[in-house]
Design a protein that fits this description.
One of its GO terms (biological process) is phosphorelay signal transduction system. Helix 7 crosses helix 10. Helix 4 links the parallel strand 4 and strand 5. The protein has 2 domains: about 140 residues, 3-Layer(aba) Sandwich (Rossmann fold); about 70 residues, Arc Repressor Mutant, subunit A (Orthogonal Bundle), CATH 1.10.10. With about 220 residues, the protein is an alpha/beta fold. Strands 2-1-3-4-5-6 form a 6-stranded parallel beta sheet, with helices on both faces. The radius of gyration is 17 Å and the shape is globular. About 50% of the residues lie in helices and about 15% in strands.
């Protein structure tokens, strides 16, 4: 299956560069472009790409607001990877809370971008390694965790355990080894956990766990 990608950036040269990188991949194609956030939302709803590469600073509607609008759909028309030259923590938190499934800096190597597109299109989530630690540490420093949601009580003991391990950054294979179960079983637990909590992917699960005080950095 070909991964369909929408490019949303107000700089034409950036979009051209992204298109060149993607054109070299036989399993990924660009299906559309947008030069502002409002156009990105309209294009994503019309074209329903698998992944949208979303710039943060755009006219009419910034990338955070555009991501929020797209994430409100059920199911959302696309998964969003936020791209930015601004290595500023606040943008990371806002993007994740808005529903982004990935975050990468624009100076990341082309192979990292291609890998991110494939990972996010598969339903997983990805953070730029350069900011992952700071994201987790920031959530851990939140003075007053949000109250537990009613959905949390619907998790089984094993699903809650899986949530903790996923929040620590373990892969399905690593969770399987830790719990002495098959990887297929872990995938089932993860899928059920995400469904019960109303989350789309593992990135959202990490955000949920830290914001609700279920896990602390180093814990």
């Amino acid at each position: 299956m070909t991964i369909r990608v929408l490019l949303a950036d107000d700089q034409q040269m950036i979009r051209a560069g992204l298109r060149l990188v993607i054109a070299a991949e036989p399993d990924i194609e660009v299906v559309g472009e947008a030069g502002d956030g409002a156009a990105a939302v309209a294009a994503a709803r019309r074209l329903r790409p698998d992944v949208t590469l979303m710039d943060i600073r755009m006219p009419k509607l910034d990338g955070i607001q555009a991501t929020t609008r797209l994430s409100a759909g059920t199911p959302p028309p696309t998964r969003v990877i936020v791209l930015t030259t601004f290595d500023i923590d606040a943008y990371v938190y806002e993007a994740l809370r808005a529903g982004a499934s990935g975050f990468l800096l624009k100076n990341a190597p082309p192979e990292d971008l291609v890998h991110a597109i494939r990972i996010v299109s598969s339903g997983a989530g990805l953070l730029d390694p350069a900011v992952t630690r700071r994201v987790i540490e920031e959530f851990a420093r939140t003075p007053a965790p949000l109250p537990a949601t009613p959905q949390l009580a619907t998790l089984t003991a094993r699903e809650r355990e899986v949530l903790h391990l996923v929040a620590h950054g373990l892969s399905n294979a690593e969770v399987a080894a830790r719990l002495y179960v098959s990887e297929a079983t872990v995938k089932t637990h993860v899928a059920r956990m995400l469904t019960k909590l109303g989350l789309r992917d593992r990135v959202q699960a990490v955000v949920y766990a830290y914001e609700h005080g279920l896990i602390r950095a180093g814990g």
